[in-house]
Amino acid sequence: MNTHPPIRRAIPDDATVSYWRAPDGWPLRRFDWPGSGRGAILFQTGRGDVFEKYLESFDHWHRAGWSVTALDWRGQGGSGRLSPNPHVGHVEDFAPLVDDLAAFWRSWDAPGPRIVMGHSMGGHLVLGALLDGVIDPAAAVLIAPMLGLRSPFPAHVAAWVARAMCRIGNPARAAWKANERPGSRFDRQQLLTADADRYADEQWWYQQVPELQLGPPSWRWLARAFASTLAQQNDPRLKTLTLPILMLVAEQDRLVDPRAALRVADRLPNVTVQRFGAESAHEILREADPVRNRALAAIDAFLDGQRG
């Protein structure tokens, strides 16, 4: 007997999945769920993610009146691939992804206030768009943001290795074969969430729509991620970003570097930080109920504060 709430494994009847074309013609798969007038949330996922993984959270915000929209990033999910190998997550640069976000934001016909949320890589790209001034939300929520990468080596050393691997072979080849992080003593579920049922939702969706699934990143993706996060950590514009930001940080995150996120938070003038300890892995919104409920309550309180 399937005990999963239907919302986790079905697109809601009053939501739509369609495609939006970027200015260069690239089709990006989108999700839209009209709300009841509270405002609109644009939710951007992490590397290799698809928006189906967050339907349960979308339902929470939708029941509070929010319209919810999400895009699969260029190169992953239902938005095509940037590598000849459809199972490798590749980018030559993150700039086209930020450009997509900026262009979509300009074209997005949604009721205000408009809120942007980003998980993991999505958090990094959302913050980049905010720093560049190409989106203008009323507030932002960054969830386990990729503001640094976990590595057995210092970030500048790992970045050098990734650049070297790009030079000695095809930079679009997979940086490793399996798992979210090479050499980890933890299996993939432990890296993402302690909730086995929510973890299983992801594989269920990939069984229904196999072309959505992505595998490990390319060496070029890895090199760009190290370079981009290091540059962002030292960006002088952080101190001038007065937009209200809520940052949710899993202090024992084994995929992104929570210390880097906290250093960035220290430089933001209008940030609220919600920390989670060993009880939370990387996917805070897909964690066991005690963690997930606390995260949603923090987001709700933050959004209520902006309305007030």
From TrEMBL:
Residues 38-289 form the Serine aminopeptidase S33 domain. It comes from the Bacteria. InterPro entries: AB_hydrolase_fold (IPR029058), Hydrolase_4 (IPR022742), MAG_DAG_Lipase (IPR051044). It holds the Pfam family Hydrolase_4. One of its GO terms (molecular function) is hydrolase activity. Keywords: Hydrolase. SUPFAM superfamilies: alpha/beta-Hydrolases. The keyword Hydrolase applies. The keyword Hydrolase applies. This is Alpha/beta hydrolase. It comes from Sphingomonas olei.
